[in-house]
Give the backbone structure.
Amino acid sequence: MNALPGKLNLSEWDDRYEQLRAGGLSEPAYGGPLRRHVIRERDFRLEQLRFDNSPAALRLWNFLLTENERLHQARARGCQIVGTMKDLGTVPVMAYSLPGVRAFYPDGAWWTPCLMECSDRLLQQAEAMGIDASFCPVRAMLPAFLNGEHFPRPDLLVCSTGAVCDDFSAIAQRLEHLGQPVLWWEMPRRRQPVAGEISCGLPGQLVAPEIQVACVRSELQRVGQALGELARRNLDDVLLAEGIRAANRVRRLLQTLRTTVYTAPAAPLPALEMLVVEMLAIHFCSDREEALAVLEGLLAEAQSRVRQGRFVIEPEAARIFWVNPVADLRAMNLLEDFGGRICGSDFMFAHALDLIPEDLPPLEALARTALADPMVGPTSDRAARIIRECQAGRAEAVVISRIPGASHCAREGEIICGLVREKMGIPAIELEIPPVCDALLPALGSRLQALMETVRARRTR
Ligand code: SF4
């Protein structure tokens, strides 16, 4: 059953799955061959990807790709479903504190056109609703909401507003105008305290004025009341504190996994699986306990490979810090094809990786964590964390993947690139990755190849 670490395409995984089954592979209820996601869900993109060959990675992919199915099953069992939009990591901690409540991000629909290679026609349907390609791929969420073919209609939909990109704000407002009630909560744009203001420390070595923390705290209290009404149970401090401890168990495991993979002499797990596993932090892929089990499996695999000195990527690969998630997952394979490996990442939800303080009143702790969101403060704050993590991970270059149409990053990439070059003296480039990047493969390949050559040339100086 054990195999040397490596990457397999879907056909190779068909064979590997049969071998694992014959060897007595034990799987959770959502387990099965990866191929079925192509056949049943039309996730055609899987045929273009290469996956880690471990049973732990198989479990991760099956967990990810069965989320909608598991949400429908949870509803059938009587669970309440909460759609939470934009905050990436805070409201789900509150929702999962209540028994019988599941939270998910409809925002995640932005991956659907890529996984289905646009056969879902969500982007075209969004365009017919007036949300064209000048918006980022999150526009796929709008028709997915209305046609009900992807995720279940939530019993409660919560969305942060204020310090939110124009794309999301416009799309969420359109959703409300089309008849979907939304519980809005205000997220102020994080700023430095001015003279005379009380300042508050936030996770991620950030600070904010106490008045902003108080604002977020009272907004989250309102969200908590709505969640409690939905669950018919008061979301009190005892429940919230336990919810925070449970979320921190996930975050601790993820921190250990990231450190294990990103600091190893060579990569024990591929970049693609690391992108997927980091996403578990934001809403536990709709099942907090199972997310823990998936993480434990991957951590055990990564640690065992490091102990045995067996890696999926060669040790001489260029150490790349990757910024922003990619709409087309194939881009993560591409990085490795051209001689790179990930040594750190900022997939836009760094605050969901930080531990939530357990020594503060729960709502205060959550408010501080929410305000540490890299996307609600100045780009210079985000760049400072990226530079710190590049230094810790001995990054040799930074890649910022631009998201087509995304209003959040019109100049953000340029600012981060400039600061990385100035403070670290390493190359930094921006690449635009569309939902299906096949047409751009030669251009993307050339840019990545040039970057790796630059890194190798710098090593011999
Ligand atoms: S513009 Fe950026 S932050 Fe906003 S929804 Fe799109 S990708 Fe997310």
User: Anything to note?
Assistant: Residues 70-239 form one domain. Residues 87 and 160 are 6 Å apart (CA to CA). The two ends are 44 Å apart (CA to CA).
